[in-house]
Amino acid sequence: MKIPPLVIGDYSFPIPLVVGGMGVRISGPKLVAAVLNAKCLGTLTTMCLGDMTRPMTKSEFVATSREALQREIATLRAHTDRPFAVNIMGALSNADDLIITAVEAGARIIVYGAGIPRTLPAVVEDRHVALVPVISSARLAELILKLWKRYDRVPDAFIIEGPLAGGHLGFSFEQLEHAEDFSLEKILAETLRIVRPYERADRKIPLIAAGGVYTGDDIGRLLSLGASAVQMGTRFVATAECPVADTFKQAYINARTEDIRIIKTPVGMPGRVLANTFLDRLEHGKIPEPVCSFHCIGSCERDKAGFCIAERLVNSFEGRTEEGLIFCGANVARINRIMSVQELVDELMTGLSTHP
């Protein structure tokens, strides 16, 4: 199979592979730089980058987050001059400030998830900055296309996350019990029909398929179904350049299919995680009161849930995996070793090149 480039707005990437913005702090400069240098698109995360160990006012939280993102982007740009993406969670109380900070610091692609980007084109008026919403249904794609008519603009791409993705999921618990009815392939086909009337002869709206992508053959199958690229996350956690602690990576290597859980997080969404001591203690009400520096997500019910999700994700990132949440994709149990980003990309592209 001939490997097509991924074109998003003004930017082209030789390999049709995006590595998603994984929080908290997982998709940091070292991992993103390695992905970019492997000729793929890397996405920098913005979630909980600063020091979140002390209570803060809203203005302190905004300033701390902004300064941390500026440092992350400066570090990344010191290692590569390739265009990169920055992921923003729309549910964050400081989402717009992070978007503006990212663009001013040099981000050329803004990926917007965990919310509906109703006014994103007004926040980013520069049309040389590509805007990429994350969706989990064709219906949401259609809504965004209609909302953006007032700005005379369409998304430069959509990322479609299916029910096998890691971390927070854009599906109800009931839908996840019947995941086959909401498969990535079905959503992709429906979204292709939705976007076609909005495309121009000289510019398509690429669809990037995410969730459950593991092999080069998976990539080839999704490209043959009309995707322009795929997004991956879980496999890139198990790389030498990923900044998470070794105990986090080892949890992936040790994972079995029966260890995967779907839980309700404090923000009210399902999340795919690995079973551990923390989940067991949470179930039995044996964890301490949550430590939370600032109520960063308006919908978060940290007191009712009994924990702060940012605190628990940071614990895992830093290696205290038995005191944290370990987000993962549905195929985590297939991981059995650590490799470099380049080695992984080479393996995926070899599999893609042999796809019929």
List the helices and strands and how they pair.
Layout (H helix, E strand, L loop, with lengths): L5 E3 L2 E3 L3 E3 L9 H9 L3 E4 L13 H22 L5 E5 L5 H11 L3 E5 L6 H4 L6 E6 L2 H10 L10 E4 L5 E2 L4 H5 L6 H12 L11 E4 L5 H9 L4 E4 L1 H4 L8 H9 L5 E5 L5 E5 L2 H7 L18 H4 L3 H9 L23 H13 L3
Parallel strand pairs: 3-4, 3-11, 4-5, 5-6, 6-7, 7-8, 8-10, 10-11
Antiparallel strand pairs: 1-2, 9-13, 12-13
Helix pairs in contact: 1-2, 2-3, 5-7, 8-14
Write out key terms for the chains shown.
TIM Barrel, 36% helix, 356 residues, alpha/beta, 2 domains, 8-stranded parallel barrel, 3-stranded antiparallel β-sheet, 14 helices, 13 strands
CATH C-level class of the largest domain: Alpha Beta
Query: What fraction, in percent, of the residue positions are helical?
Result: 25-40%
Distance between the termini: 6 Å
Please state the CA-atom Rg, rounded to the nearest Å: 19 Å
From the coordinates shown, what is the CATH architecture of the largest domain?
Alpha-Beta Barrel
How many helix segments?
14
**What is the arithmetic mean of pLDDT?**
92
Sheet having the most strands: 8 strands, parallel, barrel
Low-confidence stretches: none
* Quaternary organisation: single chain
Say what the CATH topology of the largest domain is. Answer: TIM Barrel
Summing up helix and strand content along with how strands pair, one would put the structural category as: alpha/beta
What's the arrangement of strands in the largest beta sheet? 3-4-5-6-7-8-10-11
SSE order: EEEHEHEHEHEHEEHHEHEHHEEHHHH
State which percent range the strand residues make up: 5-15%
Bulk shape: globular
The CATH superfamily label of the largest domain reads Aldolase class I
Query: How many discrete domains?
Result: 2
Query: Using DSSP, what is the number of strands?
Result: 13
